[in-house]
Design goal:
alpha+beta; twelve-stranded mixed sheet; two-stranded antiparallel ribbon; 5 helices; 38% strand
Length: 287
């Protein structure tokens, strides 16, 4: 069944963990096309210092910090039950995931200056995995005569062909950290805005000094190592073959149906690299 998860802003307390203090925190709105023909909006955070950066969703970080300990996992279950288990006017109980702090974004990106690498943790298909790639894979060309004002900062434009998409990014020399949202990095200033063909964009909504901890990945050992292109190809196959996979796991039994917000039957979503992936170069059709 098709539905949208809306997470209300909430004050959250993070579990104590080893880490270093950030110098700056930026928040972004990430917009991308979804498999239903609409747009997906994710609210993301970047913590950075001179040594590296961490990009994530705050609700996901809070959830993962709790789930990293037995006590925290029990507490999270209590919170979700209290906020999401509701009673209908007809008198029956059901789960409404739009009412609670439910994890819907699985992406974490760590940029490390010392090793000159990017490490990505995410969920592809039904499995959580990670991979590492050289930071040098992203190269930029400055376009100094194209500037923009973002949050009061004068930003310079640069362009890069990266893993199948042409990116245009605006960075601020007044914020001299070579990082940005997602995997975008390597410019002489913080990236505050970026756009790519197909409706992908990152827009900074706030930038401020911060001493928040840049914590390591929670439960990192539970993420299986993979390769970037394989993970994305497997994810496309999973999305486009969910009913077949369900039947294979249940002796040929099982059916998945989809409906719109009015309850009318609709076709299953179709995921296509050219339209839906940030990095469509994994697809043979894009090579």
């Amino acid at each position: 069944m098709r539905y949208m998860l809306i997470i209300a802003a909430a004050a959250v307390a993070f579990a104590a963990s080893a880490g270093r203090h950030a110098d700056i925190m930026a928040t972004y709105e990430f917009r991308s096309p979804d498999s239903w023909g609409g747009e997906r909006l994710s609210r993301m955070t970047l913590l950075a210092d001179a040594d590296g950066s961490k990009y994530f969703n705050d609700i996901s970080l809070w959830t993962d910090s709790l789930e990293s300990t037995p006590e925290g996992k029990a507490r999270l279950e209590e919170i979700i039950r209290a906020s999401c288990l509701v009673r209908s006017p007809e008198g029956y109980d059901y789960w409404d995931l739009t009412k609670g702090p439910v994890k819907t974004v699985y992406t974490y990106v760590f940029c490390d200056n010392a090793s000159e690498t990017l490490t990505v943790y995410d969920r592809w298909g039904e499995e959580e995995m990670h991979y590492t790639e050289p930071a040098e894979e992203m190269q930029w060309t400055l376009v100094p005569d194209s500037t923009a004002d973002v949050l009061g900062y004068e930003c310079v434009m640069a362009e890069s062909d990266y893993h199948g998409r042409r990116w245009r990014a605006w960075f601020s020399p007044d914020l001299p950290l070579p990082f940005g949202p997602w995997k975008l990095h390597g410019l002489p200033g913080l990236i505050l805005k970026a756009e790519a063909d197909g409706g992908f964009s990152f827009s900074a909504t706030d930038v401020r000094k911060s001493d928040r901890l840049i914590t390591p990945m929670y439960s990192a050992s539970e993420y299986r190592k993979t390769e970037r292109k394989k993970a994305q190809a497997d994810n496309e196959y999973f999305i486009n073959n969910q009913e077949a996979l369900l039947k294979a796991q249940n002796s040929g039994l099982g059916r998945i149906t989809y409906s719109d917000e009015e309850g009318n039957p609709i076709d299953a979503p179709v995921y296509d690299a050219a339209r839906h992936s940030l990095e469509p170069d994994y697809s043979p059709k894009r090579r």
